[in-house]
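FW: tagging you since you asked about this chain on Friday. Here's the raw sequence from the shared folder, copied in full. Didn't touch anything.
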Amino acid sequence: MAKTPSPEEIEKNYREFQKLFMAARAIHRKTRNRDEAEKSPEHQAALKFAHEQNWNWGETLLRASILEWTNDAEAALDLMQTLHPEEWPCGAGLYYFVCGGVEGKLKHWDESIQANKAALNDPAFDYSCYTWSNMGLAYREKGEYDQAIECYQKALDTPGFDSPGDAWYNMGSTYGEKGEQDRAIECFQKALDTPGY
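HL: got it, structure written out here
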């Protein structure tokens, strides 16, 4: 009989799955092609890890991520609604993060903000920088520019954030929409000065 993992082991495995999931998600976003995404080593590694933990929800999250990035957000949302994160043995931040992204793709801005805020409530969720960035986009689309700028700044202030050029660009766009052209130009310059942007 298999040993039941301790809460510490479950959290450690959850954090490892997050890392693998986010690497797979980057491929989903880059390829925007289901077959390529599913065959990628990153996707396969995350899928294998989920299977090893008997986390069927991990496979579902991976499928939803692919659907989100291959322009089938409605199907992704339907899939996400089959999950019950309150029953998981670990945090649900990753679930809410994906929900927030899917809701954003569907232009459901309030739902996106609500889901991203829920992701931030999971202390074991290690990718709050992306959550802040996603909330910034949702607030900007709602015309709530000050909240959007605050969210982009929080993304930039998060250690390990690997997309600062995108956040600076989005912040610049927000300042531009707000009518603060000088601040917009400063942010666009910071985006251009970001290595790899």
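FW: The first helix runs from residue 7 to 31.
HL: agreed, and The CA atoms of residues 143 and 176 lie 12 Å apart.
FW: great, closing this out.
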